[in-house]
Amino acid sequence: MEVSAPLIKNILLLDSEGKRVAVKYFSDDWPNLASKLAFEKSVFTKTQRISARAEAEIGMFDGYVVVYKFISDLHFYVTGGDDENELILATVLQGFFDAVAILLRSNVEKKTVLENLDLVLLCLDEIVDGGIILECDANVIAARVAMRGAEADVPLSEQTISQALATAKEHLARNWAL
Amino acid sequence: MAQLQPVGKKDDDREDDSEYSPFYGIEKGAVLQEARVFNDPQLDARRCAQVITKLLYLLNQGETFTKTEATEVFFAVTKLFQSKDIGLRRMVYLIIKEISPSADEVIIVTSSLMKDMNSKTDLYRANAIRVLCRITDGGLLGQIERYLKQAVVDKNPVVSSAALVSGFHLLQSNPDIVKRWSNEVQEAVQSKASLVQFHALALLHQIRQNDRLAVSKLVTSLTRGTVRSPLAQCLLIRYTSQVIEESSANPQSGDRPFYDYLEGCLRHKAEMVIFEAARAITELSGVTSRELTPAITVLQLFLSSSKPVMRFAAVRTLNKVAMTHPPAVMNCNIDMESLISDQNRSIATLAITTLLKTGNESSVDRLMKQITNFMLDIADEFKIVVVEAIRSLCLKFPQKYRILMNFLSNILREEGGFEYKKAIVESILILIREIPEAKESGLSHLCEFIEDCEFTYLSTQILHLLGNEGPRTADPSKYIRYIYNRVVLENATVRASAVSALAKFGAAVESLQPRILVLIRRCLYDNDDEVRDRATLYLNYLNGGGNEAHSKTFLFTSLDVPLVNLESSLLSYDASERRFDMSAVPREMKHQPMLEKKTPASKKAAKEAGQKAFANGHLTSSASDAYEKLLNSFPEFSGFGKLFKSSPLVELTEAETEYSVNAVKHIYPQYVVLQFNCTNTIKEQLLDDVSVVVDTSEAEDFIQVASRKLSSMPYGAPGQAFVAFQKTEGRLCVGKFSNILKFRVKEVDPNTGDCDDEGYEDEYQLEELEVTAADYVLKTVVTNFRGAWDAINAENEMVDEYGIGVRESLQEAVQAVITILGMQPCEGTESVSSNARSHTCLLAGQFIGGAQVLVRLQFGIDAQKQVAMKLTVRSDDPEVCAQIHEIIGSA
């Protein structure tokens, strides 16, 4: 029996018409552009009428488990194999979703994402490496994307944590204000 | 960071372009031109980062760079290592990975990356490790191995994780190098950083995965509680269930090793760990209901979570459990019912199919009402799942056929694609076959359906069935109109099968014959050849007036020779010589080279068919018909009378042996025929004179009366040998047969196909085959058990009580008795609700000789798990009642 670590098959960020904003595939299940676009189209059409705004939603599409969450004109998806622990996929989705929100200062819409596409692509790079989950804590991801701590000679470990804490506080304060 | 400026010339369009995008009108050529700024002596870090983003945008949209373009970009990017800008450096790392330079180009950046690997800045080190390990080949790895080893145990998690994850990927291509890090990785498993612990554990397991002992040791030490990270905990649960799978239970206590650990994880604070553990428990092989209970309890809590992901995960797992342990899931039925109206349709569908699997008779009506509303707004793929679940529910509760059949016919009339309609029609066909009472209403639903059916395949299937079943109903004439309408309105294929169906009515129902003849005569003018030919042929048969029996056999039996054989006989037939003789077509499958490759598949199919038949309770009529026909074609067995029952396939050899043999037990009133299906799996051998020698020293009630050899058995072509026994009259004959396969081996040169003439005798020991009491009982479906029970004279009732000893659960005891008797459980009484102290199970069957048997089993279990059973049997034949008691008494 082959047991494996949880593997992420792909992470997709599509717009409200199903067009690509940023995508990253970690699996050879989709060998070419056509099959990737077909998968994105299939997932988008099957989910577009669902409101996945308050809580992340989930479904089985084409033999994969897909968790997804929408905000304004953006659709976030994380795909795993049909055997994957759904809650782990949801954790990765939440990590991606929140990290983007932190980096864009909660101004998450297609326009700002495109204006800051570099940050979003780096985010994808910091969350998963070759299918293996690299980090799923949004604050840590955001700090690494911003290369926070690389400027000074202060030991990074301490600085990241204090800065992460600061960001977390800021984040919390905003949520409380609502 | 780098804010992208819109491209200058597009400024004018911005006003009216509501879909404003910084990448509007972007072109590959122009961006590649822009990339020249990477070569500027005075680098503008901001501008460079923007150009990299544009390049990445193009790649992300699916644009591809040619080899030259990629090389050019790569070389230009390497210049950017001169810049000290942190943001730019991060983008450089990213684009190098995306471009994935070829091996001979990598060398350009290795020195820059190695410099970053030794940097004081941890984020540089982490990124440089990831990039270098991604693009490097084995050669360079030796040089940096020392750094990587150190990085694994670095105090900064970002560095440590980068090294561990890179190691995970490198293990595929360079296992030797990564395996040398074992000590460091083991140290990292103890890391306080959550993700580092996770990565280290994943890598450590990957390194040791082929060493079962090492994995077992790893699990033993870690399950004592040093793992804190939830993700690492999930991994550990996976590895633990693997170890459980490979080890056996403690023989004394019957406890499973590590079960306590899994159960403990159900109380973890992270939901993903709780779920992983619950799922692992439900997937343990041979899981008991006691082991299941705590896992089901946490999954039940998940069902009412506000998060769709948790509800989905739980209902999906419970759905799987319901397939094997329906009683265990019954406790969740109330929560499950509220999920039928879940906004998320995947959850609702899973909930419904779970309920259909675990539901009891009283809940069917309510459930069906809820499903009807639900069916309107789900996709076809979900509908098929529901239809299949309803079909099995109907077989479980046959007396509910009316409501379920109505439901199926209603959805048949709704919109839907071919696969969906096919699933519904097939379900109705199965119900008609299995539940006699459902036949008439099922047929009329199907008649209505073909009036407006756009699928030729389904129409012909239904017409065929109408032809076979219609004439035997109370009022056959009502079907004629439906069938003839097809002749008027449909395409040629459907018309042809409608003509065949009409002819069957004409042959079977004499009073209808004149009318049918008129109808078929009209078809003589059809514009399609096949329709006209059929009409002419049938008219001839029906008008012939001569041999009525002959025309009936012709119309109602299917071809009894393999089509391939018929085809080859027809091809070699010369029309000028004499009339074609059907009986001259060989009935045994010939060894044909083109079939060689297919045999494993066809054998598998036959086996699956056998198992399927077993799962359905008894052999499907077509399978047993085929057996009967086969056996009757041999003079040795044709005088044995009517075949009572054929068993499912029993394997007599291990998989992957030289000769593969499985057997079928054919039970006749006075005889038993053992059919041995043999396959020779050695290419270099041809087997002649193949027979099975059966020793009956442990089956003294059987006397061998005939046997049939297989004259030749070439490689890959399955063949059958038979041995027939007469049973001692007046008793239920059971016993064990030990079997030896005897044959003459001839060596064959697989290349030329030449074989030596002499050969030598050899034999091969097969496993034993047992004839048990269950072989003499046919499962029959009784829809109204109460009625059938009362219809049998109560004087023929025999009651006795038995102690069954200690059992794990009532369910297990019930299952054991059902298996011994080989009878059909009725009204869903085979499943015991959990925690029940007593249970009543109803069984129906037909005993050899034709007598109907009904059995009522009443079970009780005490605190010490001692099970007692009261067995009440009724049958028209008092002898049979006694025999059933004898079966239980001697089991």
From TrEMBL, chain A:
Alphabetical list of PANTHER family matching this protein: COATOMER SUBUNIT ZETA (PTHR11043:SF0), ZETA-COAT PROTEIN (PTHR11043)
Occurrences of domain AP complex mu/sigma subunit (ranges): 8-149
Species assigned in the record: Marchantia polymorpha
Family membership: Belongs to the adaptor complexes small subunit family.
GO CC annotations on file: COPI vesicle coat; Golgi membrane
Subunit: Oligomeric complex that consists of at least the alpha, beta, beta', gamma, delta, epsilon and zeta subunits.
GO biological process, one term: intracellular protein transport
Sorted UniProt keywords: Cytoplasm, Cytoplasmic vesicle, ER-Golgi transport, Golgi apparatus, Membrane, Protein transport, Transport
Membrane topology qualifier: Peripheral membrane protein
Signal peptide range in chain numbering: none
UniProt-recorded name of the protein: Coatomer subunit zeta
Reported function: The coatomer is a cytosolic protein complex that binds to dilysine motifs and reversibly associates with Golgi non-clathrin-coated vesicles, which further mediate biosynthetic protein transport from the ER, via the Golgi up to the trans Golgi network. Coatomer complex is required for budding from Golgi membranes, and is essential for the retrograde Golgi-to-ER transport of dilysine-tagged proteins. The zeta subunit may be involved in regulating the coat assembly and, hence, the rate of biosynthetic protein transport due to its association-dissociation properties with the coatomer complex.
Pfam families, alphabetized: Clat_adaptor_s
Statement: the UniProt record of this protein carries the keyword Ribosomal protein: no
Main location: cytoplasm
Compartments in which it is found: Cytoplasm; Golgi apparatus membrane; Cytoplasmic vesicle, COPI-coated vesicle membrane
TrEMBL record, chain B:
Protein transport recorded as keyword: yes
Subcellular location: Cytoplasm; Golgi apparatus membrane; Cytoplasmic vesicle, COPI-coated vesicle membrane
Chief location bin: cytoplasm
Molecular function via GO: structural molecule activity
Chain residue ranges for the region called Disordered: 1-21
Entry's Gene Ontology cellular component terms: COPI vesicle coat; endoplasmic reticulum; endoplasmic reticulum-Golgi intermediate compartment; Golgi membrane
Domain Coatomer subunit gamma C-terminal per the UniProt entry, residue ranges: 774-888
Membrane topology: Peripheral membrane protein
Ranges where the Coatomer gamma subunit appendage Ig-like subdomain domain occurs: 626-772
GO biological process: endoplasmic reticulum to Golgi vesicle-mediated transport; intra-Golgi vesicle-mediated transport; intracellular protein transport; protein secretion
Top-rank lineage group of the source organism: Eukaryota
Annotated keywords: Cytoplasm, Cytoplasmic vesicle, ER-Golgi transport, Golgi apparatus, Membrane, Protein transport, Repeat, Transport
InterPro entries registered for this protein in UniProt: ARM-like, ARM-type_fold, Clathrin/coatomer_adapt-like_N, Clathrin_app_Ig-like_sf, Coatomer/calthrin_app_sub_C, Coatomer_g_Cpla, Coatomer_gsu, Coatomer_gsu_app_Ig-like_dom
Its job: The coatomer is a cytosolic protein complex that binds to dilysine motifs and reversibly associates with Golgi non-clathrin-coated vesicles, which further mediate biosynthetic protein transport from the ER, via the Golgi up to the trans Golgi network. Coatomer complex is required for budding from Golgi membranes, and is essential for the retrograde Golgi-to-ER transport of dilysine-tagged proteins.
PANTHER family noted in UniProt: COATOMER SUBUNIT GAMMA, COATOMER SUBUNIT GAMMA-2
SUBUNIT field: Oligomeric complex that consists of at least the alpha, beta, beta', gamma, delta, epsilon and zeta subunits.
Family according to the record: Belongs to the COPG family.
Name of the protein in question: Coatomer subunit gamma
Organism in which the protein naturally occurs: Marchantia polymorpha subsp. ruderalis
